[in-house]
Amino acid sequence: MPRENETKSLEEVEAMELIEQAQAQLDEIDAAKGSDAAGTPGSPDASDADAEVPRDAFGVVRRLWTVSKGEHWRFAVVLVSIVCYTIAQIAAPAYSAHLIDLLWANIQRAFAAGETFSIGWDTGGRECLIFLGIWTVAWAFYTLQAFTMASFAERLNLKLRRAIAQKLNVLPLRFYDANKPGDIMSRATNDLDKVSEVLQRGLLSMLMAVGSVVGAIIMMLRYNVVLTVVFLAFAAAALLMTRLVAKRTLILAARQQRAVGVLTGHVEEAYSGRIVIHAFNQEQESAARIREATQQLADAMRRTDFMTNTAAPMVRCLVRFSQVALALLGTGFLIAGRLTIGTLQAFFQYVNTAAEPLTQFSLTMNQLQSALAAVERVFDILDEPEIEPDPAHPARVPQPVRGRVAFEHVRFGYDPDRPLMRDVSFVAEPGQKVAIVGATGAGKTTLINLLMRFYEIDGGRITLDGVDTHAMTRADLRRNFGMVLQDAWLREGTIAENIAYGCDGATRDEIVQAAKTAQVDFFVRTMPHGYDTELANDAENISQGQRQLLTIARVLLANPSILILDEATSSVDTRTERAIVAAMEALTSGRTSFVIAHRLSTIVDSDLILVMDHGTIIEQGTHEELLAAGGAYAELYNSQFA
C-alpha cells in the first residue's frame, strides 16, 4: 500500500516501474494461457467440430474458383484427364473378361484336339497387347492429372500466400492487437498447407472416386444384378461405419489443430519474453507450460491417428466379408452357366474398383470440409477492414516544415463503445520540446500513435503546420518524423546498415558522424568488424543499451523535422544519458520534439509538459507552472525528488 508522505529515490522509482512492467508481461502470458484453456463455451465436441466445418461451403468454393482465375485451364485438363482415366480404368476389366474367355476357349479347343496351347498373334496375343495398351493409356492420364492438379493447387496456394502477405501489410494495428501472433502465423502457414495438400490428394481422389464408382456399379449391374445388390448392401454398411468414424475423426482433427495453435503461441511467447522469464526465475514454469501444450498436442495427434487408422481395417474387413459372399454366390452362378470365368473375375475387379473409394468417401469429405474451413479462416483475414487509403489528392505541408503540431478536440477509442480520449487539445509550437508524462496506461503512447496515424482518430483533427494530417498520405506525414522507441528494434544486417535504415544513400562518413553524436562510435569500433559487424537473431550479440544507442544514431542520421522520443534513454547508464541529452539538445534546437519520459529529470526544461491520465490531458504547462499549481505533476515530481 503506497503512503502519501513516503519519499523515494530515483533508483527506487525506476526499480518499481521495471518490476510492474515485467509483472504485467507475465500477467499477459498467464491470461493468454487461461484463454487458451478456457476454450469456447458449450459442448467441447460441438465447438471443435464447428471449427473444422465451413460456415458457407458453397461460398468458399465459389470464391476459391474466383481466386484461381488464370489457372482454370489446368483444372479443365484435370477433369478431362479424370474422364479419360475413368474410361480406361472401367474398360480394362471388361476387356479382361473378353481376353480371359478367349484364352479359356482356345485352351479348351487345344486340349480337345490333343494339342499344346501357346499364345500367338491370332490366339490371344493381339488382345493381350490391346489390354496392355488400355492400362498404358490409364497410367498416362493418371500421371497427367496428378501433375496438373499439383500445379493447380500450388499456384492457387501461392496466390493466397501473396494475398495474405499483401493484406498483412495494410491491416491496422488494432488487428494485431486483437489477434495472437501464433494464430496469424498458423493461418498463413498451416491452413494454407492443408488446403494445398487436400486439393492435391483429397479433391483429386474424390473426383476420381466418383467416376470410378459410378462406372464400376454400372458395369456390375450389366453383369449380374443379384451380386451387385449384395455388394451394395455391404457397401452401405461400410459407408455407415465410415461416417461414424469420420465424424469422430473430424472432432479430433479440430482439437489437434487448436493444440497446434496453442503450442505455437506458447513457444512464441516464451521466446519473445525470455528475458522476463529468466528475471523472475520462471524457466521451470514456462517449460512446464510448453511441455503441457506439447503433451496435449501429442495426445490429440495420437487419438486422431488412432481413429483415422482404425477406420480402414474395419471397413476393409467388411469388404473382405462381402468378397467371400460374392465368391460363393458367383461360383453358383458360374456353375449354373449364368456367368463365365472372365465375367466373374471382371466383376471382382469392379468390386475392388468401387469398394476402396466408397470406404474412403466420408473421410475424404471430412478432409475437404476441414480444408474449406481452413481457407475460410484465411479469407477471414483477407476480409478484415484495411487501413483507410490515402487521399486521391493529398495535401502537402509547405516546405520547409516548421513543425507546428495541434490537437483540436481529438476523440479516440480502441473500442468504439469505450472511448479513451474524449476531448484532447493542445498546441506544440515550432521548435518546442513537449514532454508527455503520466502513469502506465495513461495514453502517452496512444497520443504518439495518433500523431503518426498508426491509428485513425474518431473525431476532431490533428494538424501539422495547419494541414490536416488526415488529408496527407501516411508516407508524407511520417517522412517528417523520427522515432526512438523504448523497444529498440534492429533488422538483420550490419551495424552501418541499421544506422542508415530509412536513410537511403547515406555515406559512411555520415553514418560515423551520427554514431559519434549518439555516443555509439566507441563501442562499435570495439566490435570484431566495426561498422560491418553483422547483427542477427534480434541483435543479441550487443546489449540492450547499445541497441538503443544505435536507434538514436539512426534518427540522428535521418535528421527529421520533428522528433518523437519514447523513453529513448531508458536502457543507458546515467553518464551516457547525459551525453545523449546534450546531443539531443543540439539536435532538437529549432525542431519540435515530443518526449515520453518517466525520469522527470530529463524533461524539466521542456517548453510544454502534458500530464495524462486515462487518455485525458489533465494538466499542461511548463515545469514551474505545474509545480506551482500543486496538482498531479507536482505530486509525481515530489515523489521522485522530494
Quick structural summary:
It is built from 20 helices and twelve strands. The chain has 642 residues and is of the alpha/beta class.
Largest sheet: 6 strands, mixed
CATH homologous superfamily identity of the largest domain: ABC transporter type 1, transmembrane domain
Continuous helix count: 20
Query: Between the first and last Cα atoms, what is the distance in angstroms?
Result: 19 Å
Number of strands: 12
Strand content: 5-15%
Question: C-alpha Rg, in Å?
Answer: 36 Å
Q: Indicate the low-confidence ranges by residue numbers.
A: 1-50
Q: On the 0-100 scale, what is the average pLDDT?
A: 79
CATH topology of the largest domain: ABC transporter transmembrane region fold
- CATH hierarchy class name of the largest domain: Mainly Alpha
Structural class: alpha/beta
Principal-axes geometry comes out as elongated
Structural domain tally: 3
The appropriate CATH architecture of the largest domain is Up-down Bundle
Strands in their spatial order, largest beta sheet? 6-9-10-3-11-12
Helix content: 55-70%
Keywords:
ABC transporter transmembrane region fold; Rossmann fold; four-stranded antiparallel β-sheet; 20 helices; 12 strands; 65% helix; elongated
